[in-house]
Predict the 3D structure of the following.
Amino acid sequence: MKRVTEIAAPVDRAKAAIDLMATYQGWVLELSRVRREAIEEAQASGMTQAEIATKLGVSRGRVGQLASAGPPPERAFFGTGQVTVSLGGKYEAGKGPDQNPSEVVTREDLDNFEHLRKLLGGMKLEAEYEVIPTTGIVNLNRDNHVVVCGPRLSPIVAQVLEGDDNLRFEKDRAWHLLDRKAGKEYRSPLDEDGSPGDLGYLGRLPRLDGRGTFLYIAGVHAIGANGVVHYLENNLAELYREVRTKRFSTLISCRYDPDTLAVLESRRVTPLYRHEG
C-alpha cells in the first residue's frame, strides 16, 4: 500500500491502485471459498451450526449465511484466478505448411471452451483461450491452466502423459485408451461400429518445472473431449471431494447427437487413479 501511495505520477499511481485492488479482490474471493469449504467440512464431521457459531464467535444465523456465501469449494479444482484454456491447433483444411495456412481449432474444441467458460463463470472465474501452434509447443508451467489437446498434436503433452502408469493412449489399427492396471482396452464406438460415442482422458498432470499441475482433457476423437467437459459440468462437486487438487487420471465415455454433436450423457468408466499419496 505504501509503495502505491508513494508513486509520484498520478496516472501511474491510479493504475497501481487498480492492479492492487484486483489482486485483493481475488484474495477475498478465494478466502470466502476457503471459509465456505471449512464450514462445510465442520458440518460434515458432525458439528452443529450452534457449535460452529460458538467456536467462531458469531450467531448461528451468521454461520448459515457464511456456509452459502462465496464461490463453491470445487472452484479450487480449476485454480484461484483467470483460467487459460489451451486448445490444440491444426492447419486449415486443404492447405499444407508451405501455403501459409492459418492455425485453427475444431468446432468441438471451441464448443468445449464455451462450456468451460460458463462453468467457470458460475464459480466467479474468468477464462480465456489460446491456440497451441501446430508445432505442439505449449507452456505447461502456469497456474490455472487447462489443456485440451490430443497427444498426437503435442509432443510435450505426450511426454508428460508417459508418466501416467495407469492410463495411456495407444495406437494399432486405431487410436484407443488403455487401462494398464486393469489390462483393459477402451475403443471408441466411432471406430468399432460407427455409433455416436467416444472416450476421453481426464487428469491433473505435473508441470515440467515441478512447481504445480495442469488439468488435461483429450478424446480419442475430438468429440471425446466434449464428453469429458460434459462430465465436469455434471459431476464437478463430487469429483473435487474425491481428488481435491491432487494429481489423478480417469477415463470418461460419452454418447452424443450425431446431428448437433451435443453430448447426451457421460460417465466415468475407470477408477480415479491417484498419482500421489
Remarks:
- The first strand starts at residue 83 and ends at 88.
- Residues 17 and 156 are 39 Å apart (CA to CA).
